[in-house]
Specification:
371 residues, mainly beta, seven-stranded antiparallel β-sheet, six-stranded mixed β-sheet
Length: 371
């Protein structure tokens, strides 16, 4: 029996190769066992086809079930285990072949090596830069392997000092050794940079973040945040789990519409029509605002996410979980900014809210910086 193809090394979840075996002698079948540690997740006897091959396809459909996130918060950082898992498989009880799988819902380019990618990049489909603004929440995540020593997060802040472009670099944070392979998510907001760099009043118009690790002489690519000094009357702030299973944020700056409907069932009771049941639904449709082609592509993660919420700028966590209900998204090849719309509703089934008294005179759209 010859092994023509097998999973090995670190792999993206949706890019796990098929197991392909070729008959060499008089074999009739092969016992294939896949395990996580000592736990068997697949045990099957496969027979060679008429051409002398066995092909085990769509391994991701089995393995994805065992990628389950467990999150803990340590020193303001979110440590996620369970989304990078080691597996082994054996053929006819011979020596185990090992491989690891990384959570990634996207179909990554076949030539992109997963280990090289995660050792050089943050876990996002954005191309190494993002627009941000004052008070917006921002998060970045990276893979912290158990073989690493401590990982150092670095920053470079670019700001205006009396009309002169000035740079300041330093250590953003130090992440200690981790007991198991995990994802580390940290606060990458402008407010955090101001605190770390001790630049509370200076006008920062760009900042870079990257990570390094000494035992493997590792230094990642730089991720750049560009600070936009633009005021938008209508802004909706979303936090969501991206295709890697970690947090990212997006702010929609276009027009939003609130639609309220009542779905009513009637019955004829004592000669009169009466409501028997009713379902009050409040749904919001939001325009994303103008986006680059890269941002349009990245926001597929938002539309496909199962975990989305609205947040208040400058406040960690989420205000309320929402459910996306539809989208109207058309990408063109035009060399111009684009936009799309999407709709959502509260995840709670009761959409009748009492908020006027709690908000007082000004609602959340009031510009608190106005003087």
């Amino acid at each position: 029996m010859l092994i023509l193809q097998k999973p090995e090394g670190l792999l993206f979840e949706k890019n796990i190769p098929d197991i392909i075996l070729q008959k060499e002698n008089d074999e009739v079948s092969v016992d294939i066992v896949i395990k996580i540690g000592a736990t068997v997740i697949l045990q099957e006897n496969y027979k060679f086809d008429v051409d002398g091959y066995i092909t085990v396809r769509r391994l991701d459909e089995i393995i994805s079930t065992y990628l389950s996130a467990e999150k803990t918060v340590i020193s303001e950082n979110v440590i996620t285990t369970g989304l990078i898992v080691a597996f082994s498989f054996s053929l006819n009880e011979l020596a185990d072949n090992t491989f690891s799988v990384l959570r990634c819902e996207a179909d990554m380019p076949t030539e992109l090596n997963a280990e090289t990618f995660v050792k050089n990049n943050f876990l996002t489909r954005l191309p190494r830069d993002k627009r941000t603004a004052t008070n917006l929440n921002e998060y970045l995540s990276y893979v912290h392997f158990a073989t690493y020593s401590s990982v150092i997060l670095h920053y470079k802040a670019v700001y205006n000092l009396e009309g002169v472009r000035t740079e300041k670099t330093g250590t953003f944070a130090t992440i200690p050794v981790q007991a198991a392979d995990c994802f580390v998510t940290f606060n990458a907001s402008l407010a955090k940079i101001r605190t770390i760099a001790a630049l509370p009043d200076e006008y920062i118009y760009q900042y870079d973040l990257w990570f390094s690790e000494t035992s493997e002489s590792l230094e990642s690519n730089v991720f750049t945040f560009m600070v936009m000094d633009v005021y938008y009357r209508n802004r909706k702030h979303f936090v969501f789990e991206n295709s890697f299973g970690v947090l990212e944020t997006f702010t929609a700056t276009g027009r939003s519409e609130n639609k309220k409907t009542v779905e009513i069932n009637l019955a004829n009771i004592q000669g009169r029509y009466r409501k028997t049941t009713q379902d009050f639904v409040a749904e919001t449709t939001v325009n994303s605002g103008l986006l680059s082609a890269e941002e349009m592509d990245w926001l597929d993660d938002l539309l496909l996410s199962y975990n989305v919420a609205i947040y208040t700028p400058g406040v960690s966590g989420a205000d309320e979980e929402i459910t996306l209900t539809g989208t109207d998204k058309i990408d063109t090849e035009a060399n111009e900014l684009q936009a799309f719309t999407f709709s959502y509703r509260r995840a709670k089934n009761n959409h009748l809210q009492f908020t006027a008294a709690a908000r007082g005179i000004f609602d959340t759209t009031f510009d608190t910086t106005f003087n």
